Amino acid sequence: MFLVKIFMCFLLTHVLALRPATYSGTMVDFTDPKVQGHLDALVRMAQSCVIKVRATPKDVRAYFTNSPPITRSGQCFAACMLEQSDVINHGKVNRDLLIHLASLVNGKNSRVVRKLHSISRLCLDSIEGMSDRCQLASTYNDCLNENMIEFAFPLDLAEEAVRKMPFHLTQPNLPQELRQSTF
């Protein structure tokens, strides 16, 4: 749900531009050049995180389809994405930065930013007392995803992002169809 990082966050994947939807079920115009630029940055960040945490195709698919991760590497993939955007730094969520990043794409008074302002605070409660960086980031991200469903990543774009990941660098025994990577 959240389309994030690098001026977006893994989280910003869910809080991108609020314009007439071109995909069914979403309120984001994924054809907008500004949004496309953020998506490209998000994919580059994800490629780096795949290598850093040795994420699997299932881990990345879960992230991009806003599903809770089912593996430790999936949780750590979410952590990597949020840390690369500085939304999480040393185990602390920077809500102000998250909201600022969302406002760059959506505008300060947009519906996305207003909703994110309250939801991001609610999600802080879900991670209170957590010290494990992967669990903390994953839980926070899951909370955002569950509460901002209308900004979801369309499945076809999620699958396209997964196809661009360099899994062949971390998992040499993957089937050929999953090894393809377009950089």
Automatic annotation (TrEMBL):
Stored InterPro entries: PBP/GOBP, PBP_GOBP_sf
Lyase recorded as keyword: no
Leader sequence residues: 1-17
Alphabetized SUPFAM superfamilies for the sequence: Insect pheromone/odorant-binding proteins
GO MF annotations, alphabetized: odorant binding
Domain of life: Eukaryota
Pfam families with a match to the protein in the record: PBP_GOBP
Keyword Signal included in the entry's annotation: yes
UniProt keyword annotations, A-Z: Signal
Protein name (Swiss-Prot/TrEMBL): Uncharacterized protein
Upper classification of the organism: Eukaryota, Metazoa, Ecdysozoa, Arthropoda, Hexapoda
